Amino acid sequence: MKKIAAIDVGLKRIGVALCLSPSIIAPQEAILRKNRDQAAHDVDTFLEAWSIDCLVVGLPKSGSSCEEMQRRIEHFVSLLKFSGEIVYQDEYGSSVEAKEMMQGIVRQKRDGRIDSIAAKVILERYLEAHKESTWVD
Questions:
Q1: 2, 6, 22, 119: least buried by Cβ within 10 Å?
Q2: Cα 133-63-132 angle, rounded to 5 deg
Q3: 82-115: per-residue pLDDT in tens?
């Protein structure tokens, strides 16, 4: 069975979510981004610690600054030493959806919880789109 993780790459934090079985998708503690190299190292460490096979990366497919963010995200992914499968999933609206899910539960703190919930949303979208092929090696 594949172990899949998702990241939502932001300028200050990287949201992280994990899927170890078809029915359990769990947001993890966000990675604070001091600089690109440190953040890439921390993502690699996370992926290695969980023996991840497939990394789903949120990528904006529309929006005003989407081309610039796509370039930045693709560059960040190129810094990873991860040797597993890397796939991109449209992240449009995932942060808004995450904020709505957390309304009333968590004050809008900048602790990364929203970022990791957004990564969870991205991972759910990926899994929904690839139901048949995801859990077969």
A1: 22
A2: 5
A3: 999 999 988 766 665 666 656 555 555 555 677 8
Using CA atoms of 44, 46, 51, 55 in order, give the dihedral in degrees to the nearest 10: -70
* 45 closest CA partner among 14, 70, 10, 67: 14
**pTM of the model as a whole:** 0.83
CATH tag, 4-134: 3.30.420.140
H or E element, residue 113: helix 113-129
Query: Can you give the residue ranges of every domain in the chain?
Result: 4-134
Please tell me the distance from the alpha carbon of residue 111 to that of residue 60, in angstroms, as a whole number: 22
CA distance 75 to 57: 12
